[in-house]
Specification:
Layout (H helix, E strand, L loop, with lengths): L1 H31 L2 E4 L2 H4 L9 E4 L2 E5 L1 H5 L5 E3 L4 E7 L5 E12 L10 E7 L5 E10 L10 E6 L5 E3 L2 E5 L11 E2 L2 E2 L6 E9 L2 E3 L2 E5 L5 E7 L2 E3 L2 E3 L2 E3 H5 L5 H4 L15 E3 L3 E5 L4 E4 L2 E4 L6 E3 L2 E3 L3 E4 L8 E3 L2 E3 L3 E4 L3 E8 L7 E2 L8 E7 L12 E5 L1 E2 L2 E6 L9 E4 L21 E2 L2 E5 L4 E3 L3 E2 L2 E4 L3 E3 L5 E3 L1
Parallel strand pairs: 1-2, 2-6, 3-6, 5-7, 6-8, 7-9, 8-10, 8-11, 9-14, 10-15, 11-16, 14-17, 15-18, 16-19, 17-22, 18-25, 19-26, 22-27, 25-28, 26-29, 27-30, 28-31, 29-31, 31-33, 32-34, 33-36, 34-37, 35-38, 36-39, 37-40, 38-41, 39-42, 40-43, 42-44
Antiparallel strand pairs: 4-5, 12-13, 20-21, 23-24
C-alpha cells in the first residue's frame, strides 16, 4: 500500500510537470508569434512598439503630409539626436512586410518641427526585419530642411532592412556637391539630407536601391560594429564644374564661385551632387537594448554593391578592425575605393571622373586590393589625370584592364600630388603629397605608372611604361 501511494504521487508529479511544461510552451509560442495585416499607417503605428509581431501593411500608396504633422499624427522625439522621428520601430524580434507599399513623404515635412532634424524611419529595437518598402520624398530637390533630414536609421542589434527602394530629395544648396560647404566650413550655409545611416551591432542593409538627389551621404555608418552592406545600389548625379561656373545667378554666383576650400572653383572637373556612396565614420553614437554607446565604426563588410555618380564609391578609411569589400562596382564616381587598410577583392571601377582607388592618408598601411578598371559609360572628365593614387606602405595592389578601358592622358600615381580638386594651392596639406614606400604594385594595364620623388622601395611589375623619379624602387616589366 505504501509502495502504491508512492508510485501514485510520483505519477501525479510527472503529469503535473508535463502539464506545466505544456502550458509554458503554449503561452511562449503565442507570445513569440502574432501575425496581423493592417490597412493604414494609423493602424500600423501601435505595432511599431511591440515585440514578437509579424505585420504586413496592405499594398497601396500611403502618404505623410504637413497636415498630418499639424495634427500630431507623426513625430516622436529623439532628444539625444535632437530629431523628430516619423516612424520609429522600437519593438524586438518582429517582421514588417511592406511588399507592394509606397510611402510618400512631402519635403515640406522637413520644415514642420522647428529646430529639430527629421528622421523618416528609425529602428531602435533589435532582431527585426523590415522589407520591401518604397519610400519617395515628394517635392523639389531644393526643398531644404530646417535642420537637416535623414531617410532611414538603424540602431539596435541584429536588424535587417531589405529590399527598400528610396528616392531621396530635399537639401540645400543642391547642384554643387561639397564645393561651397561641408560641415562647419562653408561659404553657403547648407542643409543636408542623407539617405541611410547604419549604426548599432551587426545590423544589415541588404538589396536596397537608393536614387540619391540630395546633398548628403547615400549609405553611411556611425558607431556601427560589424555592419554589413550587401547587394545595394546607389545612383547619384554628377555635374561639370564648367557648367557651375556658367551660372549667371544663384547662390554660387552670389559668392563669386569662391569655394569652401579657399579658392575659386576650378574648371575641368566633375563633381558629385551628393556625398559618399558607402562610407564609414570614426565617431558617432548608437542605442542598443536601451543603452547608449559612443564610438567609431569597426569591422565593416561591403558585398556586391554598385555605386554610380557619387563622390566616392566605398570609403572605409575611418573604420577600424577588419575592413572587407568584395564584388563591388564604382561607376562614374569622383573616387572609387578608399579603405586606408583592408581588402578589396574582385572589384571594378572606371576612371572617367577620378581614380579607381586613392589613399586617404600617408599613414595608410596594409591595403590589399584587386581592382579591374572598366570602360567608362560617361565622357571622360578626369581633372586629376589620375587612374589610381597610392601612398603609404605595406600594400599589395593589383590593377587590371583591357585595352578598351585605357584612356590617354591618365596615369597611375605613386605618391606626390593627387591633383584633387579639393587640394589645390596647398589646401589640406595632410591629405596630399604622400610618401609611398615598401609595397607591391602589379599593373596589368597599359596605363603608365608615375613613381614620384616621394616614392621609395616600391616593387612594380607593369605592362604600361614606368617613369621612376623615386629612390630604390624595383621595376619589372
Amino acid at each position: 500500500m505504501i509502495l502504491f501511494e508512492k508510485r501514485f504521487k510520483n505519477a501525479a508529479s510527472i503529469r503535473l510537470k508535463e502539464f506545466v511544461l505544456f502550458c509554458s510552451v503554449f503561452f511562449i509560442s503565442q507570445s513569440v508569434f502574432c501575425s496581423v495585416k493592417v490597412n493604414s499607417l494609423i493602424d500600423l503605428l501601435p505595432y511599431l512598439k511591440q515585440d514578437n509581431v509579424d505585420v504586413k501593411l496592405a499594398p497601396g500608396i500611403y502618404g505623410i503630409t504637413t497636415d498630418d504633422i499639424a495634427k500630431g499624427t507623426f513625430g516622436t522625439t529623439d532628444f539625444e539626436d535632437r530629431a523628430k522621428i516619423l516612424l520609429q520601430f522600437s519593438g524586438n524580434n518582429s517582421t514588417y512586410d511592406f511588399t507592394g507599399v509606397t510611402l510618400t513623404i512631402e519635403t515640406g515635412v522637413f520644415k514642420c518641427f522647428g529646430k529639430y532634424r527629421v528622421h523618416e524611419l528609425v529602428v531602435t529595437g533589435s532582431n527585426n526585419v523590415l522589407k520591401n518598402l518604397t519610400m519617395i520624398d515628394l517635392g523639389s530637390e531644393q526643398d531644404r530642411p530646417n535642420k537637416g533630414a535623414l531617410g532611414v536609421c538603424m540602431d539596435g542589434r541584429d536588424n535587417r532592412i531589405e529590399g527598400f527602394h528610396m528616392t531621396v530629395k530635399g537639401s540645400y544648396p543642391y547642384g554643387y556637391g561639397d564645393a561651397f560647404g561641408k560641415g562647419k566650413r562653408n561659404v553657403i550655409r547648407h542643409y543636408k539630407h542623407s539617405a541611410f545611416l547604419v549604426r548599432g551591432l551587426r545590423n544589415h542593409a541588404k538589396n536596397c536601391h537608393i536614387i540619391h538627389r540630395s546633398y548628403g551621404h547615400a549609405i553611411f555608418m556611425q558607431a556601427a560594429s560589424y555592419p554589413t552592406i550587401e547587394g545595394c545600389v546607389v545612383e547619384g548625379k554628377m555635374r561639370k564644374t564648367d557648367d557651375i561656373l556658367a551660372e549667371t545667378s544663384g547662390p554660387a554666383f552670389d559668392v563669386d564661385f569662391m569655394t569652401a576650400w579657399g579658392y575659386k572653383l576650378p574648371a575641368g572637373y566633375m563633381l558629385s551632387l551628393g556625398e559618399a556612396g558607402i562610407r564609414a565614420y570614426n565617431g558617432g553614437k548608437t542605442i542598443i537594448d536601451g543603452k547608449q554607446y559612443k564610438r567609431g565604426t569597426d569591422n565593416p563588410t561591403v558585398l556586391n554593391c554598385t555605386v554610380k555618380h557619387m563622390r566616392t564609391g566605398v570609403t572605409l578609411a575611418h573604420a577600424t578592425g577588419k575592413k572587407y569589400v568584395e564584388a563591388c562596382v564604382a561607376i562614374g564616381c569622383e573616387n572609387g575605393f578608399s579603405l586606408g587598410s583592408g581588402d578589396v577583392v574582385n572589384c571594378k571601377a572606371d576612371c572617367a571622373f577620378g581614380p579607381v582607388y586613392a589613399s586617404t592618408y600617408e599613414s595608410d598601411l596594409g591595403y590589399n586590393a584587386d581592382i579591374t578598371i572598366i570602360p567608362a559609360i560617361d565622357e571622360y572628365c578626369n581633372g586629376s589625370g589620375c587612374v589610381a593614387y597610392i601612398g603609404g606602405h605595406g600594400h599589395k595592389i593589383t590593377l587590371r584592364a583591357g585595352a578598351e578601358a585605357v584612356e590617354k592622358g591618365l596615369s597611375i600615381k605613386v605618391g606626390g600630388d593627387k591633383g584633387n580638386i579639393r587640394l589645390k594651392h596647398g589646401n589640406f596639406p595632410k591629405q596630399n603629397n604622400f610618401k609611398a614606400f615598401s609595397f607591391e604594385l602589379n599593373n596589368l594595364t597599359n596605363y603608365p605608372v608615375e613613381l614620384s620623388t616621394k616614392s621609395s622601395e616600391v616593387r612594380v611589375k607593369s605592362r604600361g611604361k614606368v617613369f621612376d623619379k623615386g629612390s630604390d624602387n624595383h621595376v619589372n616589366k
